[in-house]
Amino acid sequence: MQWETVIGLEIHTQLATQSKIFSGSSTAFGAEPNTQASLIDLAMPGVLPVLNKEVVRMAVRFGKAIDAEVAQRSVFARKNYFYPDLPKGYQISQYELPVVGKGMVEITLEDGSSKRVGVTRAHLEEDAGKSLHEDFHGMTGIDLNRAGTPLLEIVSEPDMRSAKEAVAYAKKIHQIVTFIGICDGNMQEGSFRVDANVSIRPKGQAELGTRAELKNINSFRFLEKAINFEITRQIDVIEDGGKVVQETRLYDANKDETRSMRSKEEANDYRYFPDPDLLPLEIDEAFINEVVATMPELPDARRARFESQYGLSAFDADQLTGSRAQADYFEAAAQVGGDAKLTANWVMGDLAAALNRDATDFAHSPVTAVALGQLVARIKDDTISGKIAKDVFAAMWAGEGGADEVIEAKGLKQITDTGAIEALVDAVLAANPEQVENYRNADADKQPKMLGFFVGQIMKQSQGKANPQQVNALLREKLG
Ligand code: ADP
Ligand code: MG
């Protein structure tokens, strides 16, 4: 039997507002537990929620970024359930009338082809608090700081057919929400949470199979692994004569498996009804037009601009727009460096490697974009060679100062004085008469490789500081 996989994703993006969706409490991450939850977030009797306009602006921005319909009228509903991290007993969400309707994104697959994935809807809701299991023995701590944090839940159509496609779609949504500045995209801190609905069906069958919903996935890598585990599990269940049951399953990254959390039967009946404390959300044309007029550059447009404005290859432009932080970093560095291609090489090469090695990212790089640009400028104006620049970069990374400071302190300035280089060349030739003889007797096609020996000696003598182009030219002249 040939099986086809069907995947639909639900993505919760935490909106990057200063304050919460219905109150003025701060949304900052990492504060002392329960210092950022107000009476409104807890729904104490007598308080009234007031919708944060910035949240609406962000939702509309997303809707417009994926070519979706933005509803002129949407409704906030109460989703009723009790859980320790939701002591108010209901979550304010949107149910029947979401703010963002059908839209579409285009993903690029590994073979270079592209595919459209439908977005069913995106709705606004408030987040719940957090249960803390680690610091308490035999007890669970409750931190309500996250209660009332604005979320935009983005629901896809069941359009994906493999784990790789699901990852490509999730990355695309991640790219869009970070580029338009509505979400910081931090998956570790839970600002971008992906739940995957996975089912299988016999190839060619139109009807969808029964799905399992996978939760607790906090990286793109785990998203791929969780889905692939789940596909194999479902095929095994069916081929052993069983049936897949509709349920929520938790992904365990340590064991690389999914485990049943709750079945459909145990699922809550949420008894949704319109929240009587909130008016329907009405969005007029003028507001939408204003959002469109101030829309930040979208990732696809930025990639195209990187090719046309900086003359970068499609590959480089694609890499550099992998995240907004990286694209911003590159542009700031290129402006100072004065050479886009050289800057691109440094950003994707040495810098990316160092960030990766030290498990940090572009936004937190110890070498700032301006500092990297200054280093590139010193390569470009021949103050240092590309090779020496690697040492300068390492020193900058270690906090020893800016490019000029390091070059000065370590005496790394390139030797470009013709007289000085000539003296070095003469000394090396004089010290190696046998090699000189061999070189002169060798075939022309062997000579370039033999020249390397002399270049190496001279660079060694000059501690890498002699200008390589000048050294090569002088050597050829004197040996010729
Ligand atoms: P719920 O509200 O119960 O979570 P929805 O119908 O809103 O259910 O679907 C949630 C997500 O699950 C959507 O992304 C949808 O595309 C996906 N989905 C629905 N049915 C299937 C299925 N049979 N296989 C895979 N994904 C599915
Ligand atoms: Mg769901």
Would you kindly provide a written description of the structure presented here, covering whatever features stand out?
The protein has 480 residues and is an alpha+beta fold. The protein folds into three domains: 3-287, no CATH class; 297-410, no CATH class; 418-479, Arc Repressor Mutant, subunit A. The chain is 40% helix and 19% strand. It contains 15 helices and 15 strands. The strands form four sheets. Strands 5-6-9-1-10-11-12-13 form an eight-stranded mixed β-sheet. A three-stranded antiparallel β-sheet has the order 4-3-14, with no helix packed on it. α12 crosses α14. The protein starts with a strand and ends with a helix. The structure holds adenosine-5'-diphosphate and magnesium ion.
Summary, kept brief:
The protein is 40% helix and 19% strand. With 480 residues, it is of the alpha+beta class.
Oligomer: single chain
Strand percentage lies at 15-25%
Spatial strand arrangement across the major sheet: 5-6-9-1-10-11-12-13
Write down the Rg: 30 Å
- Number of beta strands: 15
Low-pLDDT runs: none
Helix content: 40-55%
What characteristic shape results from the CA principal axes? Answer: elongated
Give the rounded overall mean pLDDT: 94
Write the H/E string, N to C: EHEEEEEEEEHEEHEEEEHHHHHHHHHHHH
Number of helices: 15
Q: Which hetero ligands occur in this complex?
A: adenosine-5'-diphosphate, magnesium ion
The structural domain count equals 3
Please outline the helices and strands.
Elements: E1 3-14, H1 53-65, E2 73-74, E3 76-80, E4 90-94, E5 103-108, E6 114-126, E7 130-132, E8 141-143, E9 150-156, H2 163-179, E10 192-202, E11 212-217, H3 220-239, E12 247-252, E13 257-263, E14 273-274, E15 281-282, H4 285-293, H5 299-310, H6 314-320, H7 324-337, H8 340-357, H9 369-380, H10 386-397, H11 403-410, H12 418-431, H13 433-441, H14 447-461, H15 468-479
Parallel strand pairs: 11-12
Antiparallel strand pairs: 1-9, 1-10, 2-15, 3-4, 3-14, 5-6, 6-9, 7-8, 10-11, 12-13
The structure holds adenosine-5'-diphosphate and magnesium ion.
The site of magnesium ion has 2 residues, from loops.
